[in-house]
Amino acid sequence: MRSQTRRPPGRPRRTLPVAAFAAAVSLLVTSCGGAGQAAPRAGGDATEAPRESLARFYTQELIWRSCAPGDWGGSTPAPSAEAGGFECAKLTVPLDYADPSGPTIEVALNRLPATDESRRIGALFTNPGGPGGSGIDFAFDAKGFFTERVRERYDIVGMDPRGIGESSPVECLLGDPFFKADDAGHTERRAELFAAGCAKKSGKVLPHVGTDNTARDLDVARAALHQDKLHYYGISYGTLLGQFYAQQFPKKTGRMVLDSVVDPTHWPGDATSDANGYENGLTVMVQTCVDGGRCPMGDTRAAVMAKLDDLLAKLDKKELPAGDGPDVSKFEVLSLLQGATYNEGAWPQVYKALAAAFKGDGKGFRAAVYGPEDDAEDGAEGAAGGKSEEFALSGSYEAVACLHLAAEDRTTAAAREAGQEARKVAPHFSEGVEAQRMACADWPAPSLPAADRAVRARGTPPILLVNNTYDGATSVAWARGVHGQLEDSMLATNTSGGHGFYPMGDCTHKVVDDFLLNRTRPEPGKVCHDRNKALIPSPTPTPKAR
Asked: Where is the Peptidase S33 tripeptidyl aminopeptidase-like C-terminal domain (predicted)?
């Protein structure tokens, strides 16, 4: 679970909420149980038939045009060859579903049509998580993500949820006072200024950017695409969106796969769960290096962790030199480590960067965290003539996540208490918990009625839950918790780290594909053993006979 908030060029962030750490490692990463609580209203009573006042939205006809990555917002259709077969459209939905005759917003959609029209099942709606991830961007990568079996029989559909990307994005106007508070580590002041900047730029949409309304948008999109059922694949936060949809529209729920499962009773309200998950992910990452032999970081896990703690202690006093680029901060080291728990394929690069850092060389971290385009030194603090300059940064993560915190958890005192609790279980990743909670203390939109409650989704067909056993971002314990909360679900796991079950290998592909294509349920307790190919050593060549 990660924020999409990024600073403008020349202003590298030094302190961020724990959920935002992974945003700084986008070059490495390809993409969050309790039971026995009352089922949520999910922001409104579950209903199958739309109200008459919503009929114009449900019966709208979409205008599709050829499009390609980077061309989505243009008005000129892209050539078919350039588009690679993709089409884009805009869906009109109410800003406020309680006032459907009031203002409207547009939600961006794209799709890759099924390649075998004669055997087409329908549309497969997708969401890549975040919250704040672009569904449009995710769908544009469908050819590299979904197997040919799935793409033959489904249109792959992406949607930028309201408040994100091309769908009335939440933006926040922030100036020098915010950046100075951020650099100084003044989390309370930073949160106040951030919330005020978001309200200034996006105040009209903030009360309506929530998972409950995005689920309603999904149902309008389902109807606009002439689908009787919503077939769905969601990952990370996308699994929570799927749960909300199933709760509100159980009879419209089709074949639903929830990958890397978020438990609404733990995210984001559990102060220790997120940070502890990343702590465990770091442990697995280090142990994997040691077990593989010739680990560049050290011979034992204890030795590597001791070196890491020594490095972090030094970074508290002085940043790490990185050649011609800016020095590397403690925050940036933790950013890379946390982000790497999302993707086992990044681990070999992290091993090398960390081994070099132990020897005083930060160039590996600098390249991995920022990349060449972000290597500029801090720029001017304001516009020419000394006038303060404001930047529009994304507030999409906070706009969604803060609404999932119960009202009593959105106070300054609760934020400080959350930080203290996290420090007890996650020494390396507890620093951001307080900042994350603090960002929600002043957030100018109320919590959802369903915040921190379990979802039952009574009356749906079976829902498939899948999770990696050592996922640091969405603990397998969350998947097991949701498995117990949903009325009808099944759970399959994969013995690996990394965030995302489906892309791991042949077994994980088969589990998901068989369910989407044939409604095949995995056997109870199904376990795959796929690992990222980057961690599988190349076979040692057989010596030639002399």
From this structure: 427-528
